[in-house]
């Protein structure tokens, strides 16, 4: 088969017959545009939520806990046994010797009652290793307050960061702004914090017994966690203050940040084996194992993407098939003439497949170029919006998805070749004499 002749004839036929398929090209281009934009939107938002959990939420890559039940292995915070001081020393030794571990932070969950001279309310929050949490959050997320100072900058004794809702309940002036990560080269916005002057009193039930303990602390910062229900109860304090309040040396969990490029599954399995060999009754989870919102969000977007991909494929294939029937049926005598001149059925099949492929590739490239233009425009515009259930604005992002562009182009060309084969085979079944004798 003469490849050069085949390519030349197919391109000439496309230029001659292509106008008949403009409607098909437009439908396919729009479908491909929608598919590529949705894939970019999904990638951008999945990465945004990953950062929200791993950096802003300071989970890092791995979480080390002691689940007390099967439910606790599936639901975060459901019945975790505390990690004792002796266990912490052995865990720290193992983590310090692992070159893939960049940072490790201890977390202690606390809850109780908080009061000042005016009001009393419930609180729930954490004590944390402040500097290690700062390392996990990184430069973009370390300045984690919308007013006052973050814990890692605070020098006053017994500092306390409050959620926006809790701060408002306690009589503080709360700025109506949400948290936003610091962009490279940007200086975080510092705002003064205005709260009633008297110290806050925190009351809790201590670990191990039913005794009550209380302490006083100074509100030094206001934080926007991103979810109103959490903001209404949130308290964050240094680990030493939290342990003193609960009268314990125990902690709830470890958050571990790994080096860039580290294999999460391999590192999880390696640490689990080391902990088991050391006789430590702990479980290592990936950050996403029990991140219900992340899993649900990813599932919903994946469902939309798969649906759009199926619709785009069906619409594109049926449009090409319809255009192929209309186009090739009118050229039956042309094909019969080619066969009478000695060209094989295989040559004619390849010719029509190439013609359809050129048209489909043009439509795909048009849709992809349109998606590239819109993606660039969205990234430059830096549009923000506040999702339902969120207390802060997030960027409307569309990411570059080169593998999706390439796969879309490949699949569209294959579908075009298949769409050409169905009517062409039907036309070529007719005898040459019968086709040429038709008026």
Short description:
Helices cover 51% and strands 16% of the residues. It has 439 residues and is an alpha+beta fold. The strands form two sheets. A six-stranded mixed barrel has the order 2-3-8-5-7-6. A two-stranded antiparallel sheet has the order 11-12.
Question: Helical residue percent?
Answer: 40-55%
Structural class: alpha+beta
Q: How would you characterize the largest beta sheet?
A: 6 strands, mixed, barrel
Number of strands: 12
Task: Give the strand line-up of the largest sheet.
Answer: 2-3-8-5-7-6
How do the SSEs run, as a string of H and E?
Answer: HHEHHEEHEEHEEHEHEHEHHHEEHH
Can you tell me the number of structural domains? 2
Question: Unreliable runs, pLDDT <50, ≥5 residues?
Answer: none
> C-alpha Rg, in Å?
32 Å
Mean pLDDT: 86
Q: End-to-end distance, in Å?
A: 31 Å
* Molecular shape: elongated
Figure out the total of helices.
14
How much of the polypeptide forms β-strand, as a percent range?
15-25%
Keywords: Cell membrane, Membrane, Transmembrane, Transmembrane helix
Main location: membrane
Domain ABC3 transporter permease C-terminal: 306-431
Family: Belongs to the ABC-4 integral membrane protein family. LolC/E subfamily.
Walk me through the structure.
By secondary structure, this protein is α+β, with helices and mostly antiparallel strands. It has two domains: 3-53 and 294-437, no CATH class; 60-290, no CATH class. 51% of the residues lie in helices and 16% in strands. The chain has 14 helices and twelve strands. A six-stranded mixed barrel has the order 2-3-8-5-7-6. The longest helix is centred in the last third of the chain and has 39 residues, at 292-330. The mean pLDDT is 86.
